[in-house]
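Lab manual, section 2.4: Encoding a predicted structure.

Procedure: take the sequence of the chain (171 residues), apply the prediction step described in section 2.3, and record the output as structure tokens. A sample record is shown.
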Amino acid sequence: EDLAAYRQTGVGSVQSTPLISRTGSRLGMISTAWTTPHEPSERDWRLFDILTRQAADVIERQQSHAAVRRSREYAEAVLRTSPAPLLVLESDLRVAHANEAFYRRFQVKPENTEGRLVYELGNSQWNIPRLRELLEDILPHQSWFEQFEVTHVSESIARSTMLVNARRMGV
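Recorded output:
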């Protein structure tokens, strides 16, 4: 039945090769069609092998990128919807992202927050020597801390005491 359909479309022979990832999982098939009956040569087999490995690598890379994109979208949704004020810092302690709860709580805007060192935020009220020491220790030592007490004083917000938690997040 398949052979008859191929012949009606002018296909004389078909070579199908499975696409196998480097980890051994099956990703699909790649097929080559000729208009006349064809017996692949040794050179053809080597080319099929090279092409199928490259195609499998491309597919695997695309799947990996899609998984990373989904993970990032999920993390951003968690950040965005959290009722607690949250900051995401780059390895140099610049603010990569802050959530809406952070902007509301501290009455700041993204353009005055993102890309700046955490110690420069507001009127430098986060420039606390012990907090700085704790934050700078996280990356090189894979450490973390919880409930570090910070007293926040601002002209527009009443004095408040917060508990700060921080940890390295693998990406």
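Check your result against the sample. The beta strands are 13-20, 26-34, 87-89, 95-98, 144-152, 160-167.
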